[in-house]
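Working notes for the structural subgroup meeting. M.R. asked for a predicted model of this chain before we commit to crystallization trials. I am recording the input and output together here so anyone reviewing the notebook later can reproduce the run.

Input as submitted:
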Amino acid sequence: MKRIVIALALVLGFAGAASAQDDGAALFKSKCAACHGAAGEGAKMAPNAIAGTSEAEVKKVISEGKGKMKPVKGIEGAQADAVAKYVAGLKK
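Returned structure, recorded in token form:
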């Protein structure tokens, strides 16, 4: 019984980690990609690439804004962490 509980905890833990990454990707796609490009490569509205930006910087910009970009409404806490992790993992 103890093995089953441990195995279930491990499976749920891995599922949660994958889910957080998936959430970061989905949030980026819905809230960020239109301006920053599908892979964070930059686009017309935001020509500078953001791919590979540190998690700390991404979270700061989400909450405080930067330059012409205003703080992002509706992304905070764990969601901001997920988006930041996703952007930091994008290849430059």
